[in-house]
Design brief:
The complex is a heterodimer of chains A (88) and B (561). Chain A is built from 3 helices and no strands. Chain A has 88 residues and is mainly α. Chain A is rod-shaped, with a radius of gyration of 24 Å. Chain B has 561 residues and is an alpha/beta fold. Helix content of chain B is 53%, strand content 10%. In chain B, strands 3-4-6-5-7-8-9-10-11 form a 9-stranded mixed sheet, sandwiched between helices. Chain B is globular and about 115 Å long. The chains are: A mainly alpha (88), B alpha/beta (561). At the A-B interface, helix 1, helix 2 and helix 3 of A face helix 2, helix 4, helix 5 and helix 7 of B.
Chain lengths: 88, 561
Amino acid sequence: MGSAVTAASAGFRTAYSRNEADLTSGTVADGWATASAVTRAGEAWRAFSGELAGQVRAFGDGLSQSARELAASDQASAERVSGAGGPR
Amino acid sequence: MSEITLRMLFDVDTAAIGRRAEGWLRMANSLDDACEELIRASRDLENVWPSGDTAVRRSADLRAEASNSYPPCRRIGDALRLHADTLRGLQDQVRAVAAEASGRGFSVDVTTGTVQAPSHMFTESASPQIVAQSINAYVNEFQAILARAAESDASTANTIAVNVPDPAKGFGTLGMPPVSEQTLRDQQGRTPRQVNDWWRSLTPEQQERALQDHPELVGWLDGVPSSDRDVANRLVLADRKGALQTAADQHAARLARLLVDDPYNEIDIQRETEAMNAAQDQLGKLAEVDRALQSLGEQGLLLGVDPAGDGRVVIAVNDPDTARHTGVWVPGLGTTMEGNTVGNVERMQQLNLAADRHTLGEAGDVSTVYWLGYDAPDLNNLSVAMEGRSEQGGPRYLNFMEGMRATHDAGPSHLVAMGHSYGSTVVAEAALTKQLPVDDILVQGSPGMHTEHAADLMADPRHVWAGSAGNDPVAETSNVTKWTQFAPIVGPFIGDAYDDGHGVSPHEASFGANEYRVDTSGHTHYWEPNSESLDNQARVLAGQYSFTTRVHGDPPPDVVP
């Protein structure tokens, strides 16, 4: 599950990067409020999508790490039980 | 409000604004896809890690924040698209006003908005003040146009500004309110296009909650995308199987106790036996659906399931929302969920494979849908000779097909209505409304389509296709009266009694449809692999009309791949 969540994080980053060329114009049309607003929006959304992708990736990595730790803990417990119950 | 001049309005590149709009809308769709991937990936976290409260909360926060980003991104795209359209319209208006003024002899400079009259116009006019008033009127028109441009600019800029994420909090982790059952029920009375608009306005998290909380409502809602309907209906399938199995086990256990403890209590024994059998009957129907889905693997989408009565089920082979060519097939008499789902889905697989060979695109660009969304006539009564079942099924089929149009992605879509036997009368009932949004109608073994003319079904009857095996007893019944009328006295009565009551069979030349060649035998073999019968259907479904083999009729131009 953790790796699937980590993989999903890429979608948030590429949502912006793949469309970047069309989101804001290269030349701002002087005098139009829309042109400057969309330029500011593009910058804010680039930062947001990168931040969101980072959070999702960190969450996925955390889930994977927790799963590994739980598995290791289970294994250690099993080995302790096995060792305690074995021939003396 | 910004100061907009005619020069600015003239110079603004509306196509570039349109491209920006599409860019923002594509980003919104990408965010939607990413949210769905995140939701799918983390959906079972609570189950696999019941003690992981912190992780579950963090997952919910992330899903909410990600989901909250989709609507504002889409609003920016929608606002820019509207702005581009508005400015394009205003540019046209400026040109129209200028052309009219020039036509009346005025001199117009559209870059400055000045309008002048030549001196002779004042001297030759009986009322020079009327000339001056005309100039003022044109200037006022230009100013009104500029005011609307400035208003659109300010409104769009404002929409963009309020849909920018907060640098610290983004769009917050407070989820949007869940969709209520009543809201979902209200959608049932709306058109599939309206349903689709509403569904797309929800955040991915709201959609997910609606799927999880009310799958039985979402699963049958035409206008909801096929992939979401599939998730909902598979939940319904699993839930119903679980509930029915529990009920069957409980009735079996009670029955066992009764037989031991109270063996002469015939009433209770009969009641428990009937209840157990009823649950097992429904389980049998759902098991058939399971088998059909298993045979399709990842290709299969469950677009509707309901085991009540004879059962209703809709299964797609490949996603109709992304396919280039989609055919939706209605089965005919005697069809039940338990008896025919696997076999009919196999027919759709065969047709899909055959059609896919005729398309130039990648595998998966053809979708075939098995649609048992109506109560097909039974074999043991006269319902097959009546129009009641098709009159019930027609509106449902029409709604489903409108849903297919509403949920298809932006790419080209060739949609074909298909029906076998009595199923062709369901297609006919939908087509006779003149609202069926399809490119072709394709039928096999049809007893008649409630009209004498293909042109009543499609504006261009070349897009109506019928096939019939010479020894198909259903499709050939409309000929019975033709021959029996010559028998003295009793002939017409025999003919009327045997006739099916659905009108002339559509493969008859007088009907005006194309009759494609059939090389299979009887009423139920039109989908035999490698047969001419199947291949001709596949050609129509793939829009390769000119490659069909025909008994009569003229094919329309092929669909460009």
